[in-house]
Amino acid sequence: MTLDEFPGRQLPTPALTPAPTGAVADTVREYYGRTLASSADLKTSACCTDTAPPAHIAAALERVHDEVMERFYGCGSPVPPALEGATVLDLGCGSGRDVYVLSQLTGPTGTVTGVDMTGEQLAVARRHQQWHAERFGHANTDFRHAFIENLAAAGIEDGSVDVVVSNCVLNLSPDKPRVFSEIFRVLKPGGELYFSDIFADRRLPPPLLDDPVLVGECLAGALYTEDFRRVLDRAGCADARTVTASPVDLGDPEIERKIGFAAFTSRTVRAFKLPLEDRCEDYGQIAVYRGTIAEHPHAFDLDDHHRFPTGKPVPVCGNTADMLGATRYAAHFTVTGDKSRHFGLFPCAPAEAAPRAGAEPGCC
């Protein structure tokens, strides 16, 4: 299939419609469009990762064009499993690296749309669209020039997306609540947000946003973890899960001098468009992973404290039961029990926050 045969290519690409921008957006466009020539120009580890990707993603990356790889900046590998046939949206797609990885994983029956406000980055992505279509044997990608705060202007309709991904971009937005509101507008019921980004251990002084390097290196706009939880709750998601987390090494002495008072982590997070509770409640439910996701034959990790060995019955809270049984993962799990009987709080907490003896259990 050629690009001309891909229906997504027939959709009109809206002009770049105004959204909350100002100096921050201008800084981001300048830094990623002109200042950086390649990922080697980054000054810290915030916008890149040394962690080796899973084997199937590494294999997909090997099939992505060199220029796309060189001009891509990201802090993780926000590619969830079970994507075949899915409709995927990549926010802040840049040069398109993750779009082209996702194109291979969704296959010819899926679609992947990348949205970015930086014309120079999109030019790289589009320049190699036909090259990737010929290499993959199918054309299922589309790139749109738009703000991630205004996905309607990009033609993304309500409830039209199975999975939203983003790689170290949400921190760059000057209006994060609007971004998350848009994400949950476009997700289908049971759809998943899966993203990697930089988080801070405190609220950062607003004047730091005037520093183009701190903004461009994904530090000045880093999400404070507790504010992220609050913003997501207001967007309709009461329970987001951390999949992985690692500290960010600032490295550069000048950057350390300016912002070294705060600690930063690179996190991969997943959240679902589901009517979840704000605490982990116990309904006596059990989940069994069938081992049917090709890349995860022996176990499936929902997050950093929920591992499901193949065939092993695992007690789960009501939220986890819904994440596994009311999403695209339902085909890979057997979830037994309902919510007709309540047994109180479920003793569930991340490993780093496991309750002490006698302490009240935390939520997921």
TrEMBL record:
<dbReference type="Pfam" id="PF13847">
    <property type="entry name" value="Methyltransf_31"/>
</dbReference>
<feature type="domain" description="Methyltransferase">
    <location>
        <begin position="85"/>
        <end position="236"/>
    </location>
</feature>
<protein>
    <recommendedName>
        <fullName>Arsenite methyltransferase</fullName>
        <ecNumber>2.1.1.137</ecNumber>
    </recommendedName>
</protein>
<keyword id="KW-0808">Transferase</keyword>
<dbReference type="InterPro" id="IPR029063">
    <property type="entry name" value="SAM-dependent_MTases_sf"/>
</dbReference>
<feature type="compositionally biased region" description="Low complexity">
    <location>
        <begin position="11"/>
        <end position="21"/>
    </location>
</feature>
<dbReference type="GO" id="GO:0030791">
    <property type="term" value="F:arsenite methyltransferase activity"/>
</dbReference>
<keyword id="KW-0949">S-adenosyl-L-methionine</keyword>
<dbReference type="GO" id="GO:0032259">
    <property type="term" value="P:methylation"/>
</dbReference>
<dbReference type="InterPro" id="IPR025714">
    <property type="entry name" value="Methyltranfer_dom"/>
</dbReference>
<keyword id="KW-0489">Methyltransferase</keyword>
<dbReference type="InterPro" id="IPR026669">
    <property type="entry name" value="Arsenite_MeTrfase-like"/>
</dbReference>
<comment type="similarity">
    <text>Belongs to the methyltransferase superfamily. Arsenite methyltransferase family.</text>
</comment>
<feature type="region of interest" description="Disordered">
    <location>
        <begin position="1"/>
        <end position="21"/>
    </location>
</feature>
